[in-house]
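Quick start: load a record and inspect it. Here is Alpha/beta hydrolase:
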Amino acid sequence: MSVRLFPGRRMLPLRCLLACLLLVCSIVATASPGAIAAARSYTVTAPDGVRLAVQEHGATDGPAIVFVHGLLGSRINWDAQLADARLQRYRLITYDLRGHGVSGKPVAASAYQEGTRWADDLAAVLKAANARETVLVGWSLGGAVISNYLSRYGDTGLAGVVYVDGVIELRAEQLGAHPAIYRDLVSPDLRTHLQAVQDFLRLCFATQPPIPVFEALLASASLASWDMQRAVQGMSVDVAGLQRTRLPVLLMYGARDALVATEPTVARARQLQPRAQTALYPDAGHAPFLEDSARFNQDLLRFVEH
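Running the structure step on this input writes:
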């Protein structure tokens, strides 16, 4: 199956077409030839009808690692992991969250505010992929998606859970204080909105990435739904499943994260799950999988293999 960028006979808005073109050009400019094998792409339909773009890399069978990106992201956030030969021994599954990338973009606020919708999406992807012995890896907002999944579906069929600078709860003490950026992300003024997107992405890094990498991330972010950006700030997060699980849990956080407050967030996660392991990246911000990808991949591999 292939991802349909043009459902029915409707044309995408010019802004989305330009963003898609920039995204493709940026990825081509930053990826080494042959670094990432061609994806096996297909679509999955969530229970509420939202179409989700799914991609698989690496092995075609065996244990899976499912990567769940964060706010304003897409599957390209995980390129450094998909290109790692050691990780390619596993089924590497990515998908664009609802309201992101080339997945469906409903307009109703409830489609984003109800945390169970995001959990249902992940469940639909796992079922369609027939994933087994799966390790879930959630970055930022992706951590909240995993928490909601554990609370709604439990941990049957899973082998472990990884929070990468993950949102544990949407509480002020666990988040960086950037009210102006979150306000401007939903501004009706295009220039204000685009500046907020750039500012948000810059806050993801303690040390700014090379320009081509930043441009690729910016292009990806421009595909995110404005309806989603408005509504997701009120998303419900249920941590009961994280507290109940007996699975191995790994907390991978950058010590210099400006978007998620590392110390109180890790403390809260360990309060909920005292058995959780912790990997801190002293020179990384909100995106250690990009800022310190070599160590990140090694730590992830060690967790998956044990």
